[in-house]
Amino acid sequence: MFDFHAHGGKRDCNAFVSYSADEYQEGKRNRYMSLMYLPWIDTYDVRTYIDILFSDDNLMAGEIGLDSRFKDRDQSAFYTILEALEGSRKIIVIHSVRNDEKILNEIRRRDIEKAIFHSFSSSLALASKIADAGCYFSIKESFLSKKNWKEYLSLPFLLETDMKTGKEQEERICSLYSKIEAESGIDVYSLMEERKKELFDD
Ligand SMILES: [Zn+2]
Known about the structure:
- By secondary structure, this protein is an alpha/beta fold.
- 36% of the residues lie in helices and 19% in strands.
- The protein is built from seven helices and eight strands.
- The chain starts with a strand and ends with a helix.
- The model has no long low-confidence stretch (mean pLDDT 95).
- Bound molecules: zinc ion (ZN).
- Zinc ion is lined by residues 5, 7, 18, 63, 162.
C-alpha cells in the first residue's frame, strides 16, 4: 500500500516522503521523496532551497504552498519556487489552506506538468478543475467524513496519511485502502499502483 504523502521517519518506506532541508542534508533518503519549504516553518533563504532542490534529480518539490492561517507571514517564496520549477519535470506537492483556486491558476500559468494537492478537502467542483488541469488530489482518512466523498472517486485521487513514516503510518494507510475498497467496491490497490506509475514514470 503506497502512501502518497508522508513525512520523514523510518528509511526506505513505501511512501512519497516530504523532507525538511535539515533531514535531507543529514542523509535521510527514500526512493520517492520531496523537499519541503513552508515559510512559516522554514525560515532560511528560498534560494538555498532551490539550490538543494535542483542538486538531486530524484528530489521532487513540496510540500510548498499558501496558507491563509499565516497571513502575517511573507509567503512569496511559493511563487519564487514555482518560477524556478517552470519547465522542470519535478512533481510538486501542494499545501493549500483556502488558496486552491489561486494555486491552480498559478500551476496552469507556469505550465507545470504534475502536481498533487495534498490533504485535499475542498469541493467536488474544485476537484474537477484539478483533474482538468491534469493534476491529482490526495486525501486522508478524515476525508471520509464528507457526506459525498464517494462522488470524488471517479476523479484522480490519491491516498495519504500525512504522518511520519513508521508502524503507525503503515497501519493507517492500510486501513484507508481497506475502508475505501470495502465501501466503494473499487480495487484501490491496483488503481493506486497505476497512478504511482503515471506519476513517477516507473
Ligand atoms: Zn504534510
